[in-house]
Write a structure and sequence with these properties.
mainly alpha; single chain; 2 domains
Length: 117
């Protein structure tokens, strides 16, 4: 393997040239493209969908390989789905809670409680 900058011969899999210091190969020091943002997006899709959305968007924009971008897209899709499911659950729960509050207000028990009798 030869240096891309100065042309000196280097050992295979060298990350830097020992003569000029130029970085060889990819920008990642370990030579692997990390898909950590995509994986975090998938994990947070179930816990905090809004965080999953943000991590998915950043993962798509900063992903260097198609694998990491695909992982981030999966995280984005799951985050959208879980956000929608959570919103439905919140509205159903809120509707039931409000119905019980309205029933309580309309009942005689509440009026007796308010009047103190």
């Amino acid at each position: 393997m030869y240096c891309k900058n100065c042309g000196h011969e280097l050992q295979d899999n060298s990350e830097f040239c020992v003569y000029c210091g130029a970085r060889q190969g990819s920008n990642n020091v370990n030579g692997k493209d990390s898909s950590a943002l995509g994986l975090l997006s998938i994990i947070f899709a179930f816990v905090q969908p809004m965080v999953g959305l943000i991590l998915g968007i950043v993962g798509v924009l900063q992903g260097k390989s198609s694998k990491s971008k695909k992982t981030a897209i999966v995280g984005l899709i799951l985050s959208f789905i879980m956000l929608f499911v959570y919103l439905i659950l919140i509205f159903v729960f809120l509707d039931r809670t409000l119905e019980k509050i309205y029933e309580l207000i309309d009942s005689e028990t509440y009026l007796i409680f308010l009047l103190g009798k």
